[in-house]
Amino acid sequence: KVATYEKDIAEGVCTVCGEQEFVVEQGVLTKYNGAGGDVVIPIRYADVYETAQLCLEKGIKPAAEIFHPGQFWVLNDLISKGLLEAPYLMQFVFGFQTSIQPTPWNCLAMLEEAPPDSLCFFPGIGPYELPMNTMGTILGGHVRIGLEDNVYYRKGELAESTAQLVARAVRIAKELNRPIATCAQAREMCGLKPVD
Predict the structure, then answer these.
(1) Distance (Å, rounded) from C-alpha 141 to C-alpha 120?
(2) Which residue in 39, 44, 65, 95 is a FRET match for 101, CA 20 to 30 A apart?
(3) At what angle do helices 162-175 and 129-138 cross, to 10 degrees?
């Protein structure tokens, strides 16, 4: 399972559903408490370093949510201190308040800043999910799709499920001649252990 918040990582209890018996394999470095619209990025250095250290100690593969190019300073510092191991999971978050603007030029700029050995994901928030994920697919990156980022399938039409959003991304990737990874391939690409 994926840990969404630092409490999941530290305590092994899912903050979202309350499930207690699960193994956390992948989490995010940003310390976000679900404060809705009352969030300003960047996050404090100490929070990111603390979460990175905790992930390293517990064998959890962290993903870095990058909201703007200035955060690459922190990321490169974490790598130089040995707190992150390749492959580096980069999630360039577009369209979130105080994050980088969702434009093709900014997709290219973020991709250029990514360290070598990075897997780059292009999530967009709300109406930017489809265009940013499509740009990421075109640029050789990966998608992050789900109702956490966007609840609409198209303007004025709620998505039926995350599966519906994923099916559209798969169709677009196939149209662009991008192969679709199996679960096992995706785990390997992300540096996660195979599932028995």
Answers:
(1) 5
(2) 44
(3) 30
